């Protein structure tokens, strides 16, 4: 009790020492609609409030470190406004800049961005589900998806938003936001579909009309920040929550306060001062907790960054105990079959299960086959699903997932095969897989044929029949197919006379492009026939002799 009196007395003194006209800074992160920022600016710029757009710290629209730069700038925000689509990551349709919730968590853990994350007196999170809990939404995932599409959000982003909202794994967005913005008196957002930038304008203007003096409001919130340390809740919080919910009536508005600052166990996993052994003990502890499923994804992220083959004896002993944690293993394995509609969650869980030994490589492959079967149904293997499959950190061998022959006719499936091949570094594919890919070289879909050519590139050198087939594709009328065939043939050394004959036919073509393509392919294959070398150099004199 004595400490609370000291805090209260300290706060009263701080009011007397506070500059009368202290300038306030409102930070904005605008990834999609800028309507929210414009409304705040037009209302309070005349009060002398400074508005600081944090995405301006980017060097270009692909800058992945823009938020790091904003944190390092030393900016101190009295309020923070984030506007964007949200599905576990804030993003927009006209920019490549993103702000993952994972990034915010790491910054909060390391306390390297306090000026943006814990300094504000209030935070506005304009996006769907920014303060959603794990309670059931009144819509099914499919209904929710339709609403988002009707709201003008593109299909590529809709799948990500729906997946994040309905995942049973991990902490709720609300709980995570409260920890990210710990100590912040007021956090505003939405617990379901949020209004678009245009739609929210009338609600937001109505809300801000209740706040004629923003600097005074921030002073009141600063008082609340101290009150929250002295007593549970406050009349100020109740008043401001009421104003928000009244103005936003008819939307899925939500409000809460940031959590009390405290040490979070999972933060140790990313503490540069903690040893790997301490971090492994933290992993073990998190997986022994009753709410372990909330920690599966953060554990997977940490373990992905370490080499499991180079653990010390003590670390290996901890890993063995984790492997024998049958309760955690069974909970994860019971969850994965239910997550076919949430690939962004399911696939990392499968990676985790394989990494710690809760599932054998054959079990992972079998489950991956079932997952791909489910993904092929409904709207098919969309680009969003391809991205999810390509993000698998420890993919199985393709021939172990019981791939159906029809899958190979899908260019997106071939893209996944290529991703997995690149991730594993495995250059050669099994005979069965190569045989399926070879059939797709005759596909009526140019994209499928091009993808198949890319896949057989590492196998063509040892297959004479395949070499002849690819050589004939050098003359395809589709420029993408002919270019891909040319690239594949560059992997053929010591080609047979039949292949050389097919390739050299193009040297006599009346089409200069076809003739040059033939010449360059002869050079790329290292053909040593003097006559052909001379003719190829005549057709394409810009080539270096070989």
Task: Explain the overall architecture.
- The chain has 546 residues and is an alpha/beta fold.
- Among the domains are: 23-259, Rossmann fold (3-Layer(aba) Sandwich); 271-359.
- 52% of the residues lie in helices and 7% in strands.
- The chain contains 26 helices and 9 strands.
- The chain has helices at residues 2-17, 35-44, 66-72, 101-110, 114-117, 141-150, 155-166, 173-180, 197-208, 214-230, 235-247, 276-288, 296-304, 313-323, 326-335, 343-356, 361-376, 383-390, 411-424, 431-439, 446-456, 464-472, 479-489, 497-504, 512-524, 530-539; strands spanning 25-30, 50-53, 79-83, 85-86, 89-91, 98-100, 122-126, 186-190, 253-256.
- The strands form 2 sheets. Strands 2-1-3-7-8-9 form a 6-stranded mixed β-sheet, sandwiched between helices. A 3-stranded antiparallel β-sheet has the order 4-5-6.
- Strand 4 and strand 5 form a beta hairpin.
- The radius of gyration is 29 Å and the shape is globular.
- The termini are far apart.
- The model is unreliable at 3-20 (pLDDT under 50).
Alpha-carbon distance between the two ends: 87 Å
Main sheet specs: 6 strands, mixed
Indicate the CATH class of the domain at 23-259: Alpha Beta
Oligomer state equals single chain
Architecture per CATH nomenclature, i.e. the level-2 architecture of the domain at 23-259: 3-Layer(aba) Sandwich
- Helix tally? 26
Structural class: alpha/beta
- Tell me, what's the shape? globular
On the 0 to 100 scale, the average pLDDT is 87
Q: Could you please say which CATH topology of the domain at 23-259 applies here? A: Rossmann fold
DSSP E strands, number: 9
- Low-confidence spans: pLDDT under 50, at least 5 residues? 3-20
Rg, alpha carbons: 29 Å
Strand-residue fraction? 5-15%
Strand order of the largest sheet: 2-1-3-7-8-9
Helix content: 40-55%
């Amino acid at each position: 009790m004595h400490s609370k009196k000291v805090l209260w007395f300290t706060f009263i003194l701080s009011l007397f020492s506070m500059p009368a006209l202290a300038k306030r800074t409102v930070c904005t992160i605008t990834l999609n609609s800028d309507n929210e920022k414009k409304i705040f600016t037009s209302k309070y710029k005349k009060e002398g409030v400074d508005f600081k757009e944090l995405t301006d710290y980017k060097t270009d629209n692909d800058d992945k470190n823009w938020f790091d730069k904003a944190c390092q700038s030393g900016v101190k925000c009295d309020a923070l406004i984030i506007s964007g689509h949200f599905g576990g990551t804030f993003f927009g349709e006209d920019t490549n800049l993103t702000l993952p919730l994972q990034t915010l968590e790491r910054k909060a853990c390391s306390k390297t961005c306090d000026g943006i994350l814990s300094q504000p007196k209030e935070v506005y999170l304009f996006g769907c589900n920014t303060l959603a809990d794990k309670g059931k939404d009144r819509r099914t995932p499919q209904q929710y998806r339709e609403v988002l599409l009707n709201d003008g959000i593109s299909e590529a982003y809709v799948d990500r938003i729906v997946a994040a909202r309905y995942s049973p794994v991990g902490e709720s967005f609300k709980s995570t936001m409260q920890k990210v913005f710990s100590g912040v008196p007021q956090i505003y957002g939405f617990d379901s579909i949020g209004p678009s930038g245009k739609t929210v304008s009338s609600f937001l203007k109505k809300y801000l009309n209740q706040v004629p003096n923003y600097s005074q409001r921030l002073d009141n919130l600063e008082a609340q920040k101290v009150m929250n340390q002295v007593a549970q809740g406050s009349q100020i919080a109740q008043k401001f929550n009421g104003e928000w919910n009244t103005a936003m009536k008819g939307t899925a508005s939500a409000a809460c306060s940031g959590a009390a600052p405290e040490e979070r166990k999972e933060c140790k996993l990313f503490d540069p001062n903690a040893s790997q052994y301490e971090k492994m003990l933290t992993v073990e502890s998190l997986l022994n907790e009753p709410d372990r499923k909330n920690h599966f994804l953060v554990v997977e992220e940490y373990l992905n960054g370490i080499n499991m083959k180079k653990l010390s004896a003590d670390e290996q002993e901890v890993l063995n105990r984790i492997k024998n944690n049958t309760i955690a293993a069974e909970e994860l394995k019971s969850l994965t079959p239910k997550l076919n509609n949430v690939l962004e969650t399911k696939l990392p869980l499968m990676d985790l299960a394989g990494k710690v030994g809760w599932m054998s490589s054959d079990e992972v492959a079998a489950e991956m086959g079932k997952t791909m079967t489910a993904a092929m149904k409904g709207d098919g293997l969309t680009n969003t699903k391809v991205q999810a499959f390509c993000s698998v950190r420890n993919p199985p061998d393709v021939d172990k997932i019981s791939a159906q022959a029809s899958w190979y006719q899908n260019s997106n499936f071939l893209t996944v095969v290529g991703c997995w091949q690149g991730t594993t570094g495995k250059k050669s594919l099994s005979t069965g897989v190569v045989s399926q890919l070879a059939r797709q070289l005759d596909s009526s879909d140019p994209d499928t044929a091009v993808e198949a050519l890319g896949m057989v590139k590492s196998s063509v050198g040892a297959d004479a029949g395949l070499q002849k087939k690819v050589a004939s594709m050098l003359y395809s009328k589709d420029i993408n197919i002919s270019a891909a065939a040319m690239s594949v043939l560059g992997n053929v050394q010591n080609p047979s006379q039949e292949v050389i004959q097919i390739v050299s036919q193009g040297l006599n073509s009346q089409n200069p492009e076809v003739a040059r393509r033939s010449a360059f392919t002869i050079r790329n294959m290292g053909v040593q026939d003097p006559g052909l070398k001379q003719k190829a150099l005549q057709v394409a004199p810009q080539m270096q002799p070989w």
